[in-house]
Write a structure and sequence with these properties.
549 residues; alpha+beta; Flavocytochrome C3, Chain A, domain 1; eight-stranded mixed sheet; 21% strand; FAD/NAD-bd_sf; steroid dehydrogenase activity, acting on the CH-CH group of donors; Succ_DH/fumarate_Rdtase_cat_sf; oxidoreductase
């Protein structure tokens, strides 16, 4: 079907960045992707657009003092690098933190990317200074969310398409890498039937032809395994207990992991496949796009987090503090769900939903809509879930709340007596300005940060305060999301084989490469680092193949 200097497998964020950078260097590039044009841009389109930056102007305006040293302390405390396979991931991590503290913002800003002025505080940790979590707020929300991150790279790629340096072949599924004498020389696969499904929906796999492409370099930027629950369960590590029988899906079905196995079959080494990042605050989408479509709640710190039986989770497993620590604990409870218990005042101030489509004000860059967040009431998407979502219970009394929780769960695990004991015990701690309840202390501490006090953390009051009703309970399930391990790469994004040497002609970027090196996050993420990892590794791959000649 043709020859080009570079073939990029995957039209998601990492692939588009790699293609743009390679074409900027004068290379001819062919992008292939199995999905139709409606899904151009891949999974990043659906994201909230959060980016990890260090010592940014936005942080400084919010009086946040950050540094590369503090960020590296947080990264290593979270990553927990402890394997020989972490040699390249650790080097990628250090390079990425330096990038986030250096040219990342200026590079993006020069392409027109702008940020919401209030910096979010994700993954707060709750351990010691050298443990997991962000010591300071670093979650920078892109103005335009995920589409806003994609926009400059789509524009750059399309400019190269018009100039004849890039061609895009959609509905082309790669089924294998072509090799000659140990060197990757191209790709081959199936041409799929046209599909008019809406963005993100499952498309047909009907084969109508085949294709072969030759290239000097192939960049694999095909994403992770989160859309295939069987692959997730097969890679699930024992340290996280047994995988849930009932999971929901945070990514389109096209995030199927096929290319990771195909690339491994061509001589690549996959490392840290047991490292993964799945959220425990998942709710079923009442208006789904893909099968089992779940949405993650981005919670503030005030909701009570209860297991399926109504028992409060241990310290410091509070909302927004330790994603995988909470997942590991909940997998010991023998139930696949847990609960947030809160009230209307908390949902109005503290509930955000992950995803570009759940944040029309930020995605649409509407200042007028955004100002609505400062008025009384939850955002319209949150209210829609409260009214229509199958996981929400709204009640005036604790007796009604407990009955509703059991109705939603299809069990009688929560008792009114037990729920009342937990709620009233917490409310007694609100009488004084001091407390032994570390969650209450954390809530009050969070409000010392101006951003949290303004738009993220509710005024600390009793859950049963009559001013703040009604009461609300939300059933939470595990929602699949990110692959943290992947194809091992050096700092030039060259894919390495089992002997540690580069597989000639083969590169990888984005989630397929564990966002760099085969797992630059280690065991845990600091958030805002997935899109950023696609940007950084895609840029590295594109510049490397651009210089390869």
């Amino acid at each position: 079907m043709g020859t080009s200097d570079v073939v990029v497998v995957g039209a998601g964020l990492a692939g588009l960045v790699a293609a743009a950078e390679a074409a900027d260097a004068g290379r001819t590039v062919t992008i292939v992707d199995q999905e139709p044009v409606q899904s151009f841009g891949g999974q990043a389109y659906w994201s909230f657009g959060g980016l990890f930056l260090v010592d940014s102007p936005e942080q400084r305006r919010m009086k946040v003092r950050d540094s590369v040293e503090l960020a590296w302390q947080d990264w290593t405390g979270s990553a927990g690098f402890d394997r020989p396979e972490d040699f390249w991931p650790r080097r990628w991590a250090r390079a990425y933190v330096d990038f986030a503290a250096g040219e990342k913002r200026a590079w993006l800003h020069g392409m027109g990317v702008r940020f919401f002025p209030v910096v979010g505080w994700a993954e707060r940790g709750g351990y010691t200074a050298q443990g997991h979590g962000n010591s300071v707020p670093r979650f920078h929300i892109t103005w335009g969310t995920g589409p806003g991150v994609l926009e400059p790279f789509v524009r750059r790629v399309l400019d190269h398409v018009h100039a004849g340096r890039v061609r895009v072949l959609l509905r082309h599924r790669v089924d294998g890498l072509t090799t000659r004498d140990g060197t990757v020389t191209g790709v081959h696969g199936a041409v799929l039937a046209p599909s008019d499904v809406r963005r993100g929906a499952s498309s047909s796999r009907e084969v109508v032809g085949d294709f072969t492409l030759e290239a000097q370099s192939v960049v694999v930027a095909s994403g992770g395994i989160g859309g295939d629950h069987d692959l997730v369960r097969a890679a699930w590590p024992s340290r996280l207990g047994t995988p849930p029988e009932d999971m929901i899906t945070g990514v389109p079905a096209s995030v199927d992991g096929r290319m990771i196995a195909i690339t491994e079959g061509a001589g690549a080494r996959v490392v840290n496949a047991d490292r993964m990042w799945h959220y425990v605050e998942g709710i079923k989408n009442w208006d789904p796009v893909w099968p089992g479509h779940g949405i993650r709640i981005l919670p503030g710190p005030s909701s009570l987090w209860l297991d399926a039986t109504g028992e409060r989770l241990p310290v410091p497993l509070f909302p927004g503090f330790d994603t995988l620590g909470t997942l590991a604990h909940l997998r010991t409870t023998e139930h696949d769900h847990s609960w947030f218990v809160l009230n209307q005042a908390i949902i109005e101030k503290e509930f955000a939903l992950s995803g570009s489509e759940q944040n029309p004000d930020l995605t649409g860059r509407s200042v007028r809509q955004l100002l609505g967040r400062l008025t009384k009431g939850a955002t319209p998407p949150v209210e829609a879930f409260k009214d229509r979502g199958e996981d929400f219970v709204v009640a005036e009394t604790l007796a009604e709340l407990a009955a509703g929780m059991n109705r939603v769960a299809g069990s009688d695990l929560v008792t009114e007596t037990g729920l009342r004991e937990v709620v009233e015990a917490r409310d007694r701690e609100m009488v004084n300005a001091f407390t032994k309840d570390l969650q209450v202390t954390a809530v009050r501490g969070a409000r010392a940060y101006l951003g949290d006090r303004l738009i993220r953390v509710a005024t600390p009051r009793a859950l049963m305060d009559e001013r703040d009703g009604p009461l609300i309970a939300v059933r939470l399930r595990v929602i699949t999301r990110k692959t943290l391990g992947g194809l091992e790469t050096d700092l030039e994004s060259r894919v390495l084989g089992p002997d540690g040497r580069p597989v000639e002609g083969l590169y990888a970027a984005g989630e397929a490469a564990g966002f760099g090196g085969g797992g630059m996050h280690g065991y845990r993420s600091l958030e805002g680092t997935f899109l950023g990892g696609c940007l950084f590794s895609g840029r590295a791959a594109g510049r490397a193949v651009g210089a390869a000649g």
